Amino acid sequence: MSTLTVIDHPLVKHKLTILRDVATPFPTFRRVLRETTWLLAYETTRHLRVESGTVETPLEEMTAHSLPNPAPCLISILRAGNGLVDGLMDVMPEAAVGHLGLVRNPKTLLPEEYYCKLPSEIEKRQVILADPMLATGGSTIAAIDRLREKGVRNLVFLSLLAAPEGVEALQSAHPEVPIFTGALDRELNEKGYILPGLGDAGDRIYGTE
Ligand code: PRP
Ligand code: URA
After folding, report:
1. Lower CB count within 10 Å: N or C terminus of the chain?
2. pTM of the entire predicted model
């Protein structure tokens, strides 16, 4: 069974066009990425557990459902992952948030870790790992390896764009991890950039080009 879900939605397509456009300035890019994440979040969070309890409406008591304790957790692969996590936090403010600093070495294309701060009891939480770009897959695989070391069992990965090469690498390294993405692009170029892609996600979010 494929672990890949491409979130096929007209508004995601429309917003992706704005994000891909080289003429889109970074304040617009950041805002539209946040809006796109709200839409991607709907499908990505479908698997979350809820607990039964009761709530008193103005008219009567009823059985109702809430997120469990400890709450799910969002993990950002810095720095571009923050662009997705900002939108995920809007729809799930109860979530704890962790950060994994990984930067891809431009020569080797291999990820190098420079920071790791994770929520307590992460092994008991459902985890959404987020990075807008699944290119070679190296950063995502390294992040999942790290989370597994910390005892994380229940995990899904969300990206904005994915390259076939990255999906294949991730499925081969972690075949049990569901992958959600806004679009599956054509291929990688020789520098490991996604084609047609949107360029360097971190630079486009933070205006550091
Ligand atoms: C980008 C992107 C991913 C990684 C994807 O980050 O946000 O983390 O590259 O590439 P991969 O699948 O080949 O590993 P980058 O290393 O440029 O760091 P940044 O987020 O700090 O810009
Ligand atoms: N990282 C990015 O930010 N963009 C790509 O196309 C590939 C890796």
Report:
1. N
2. 0.97
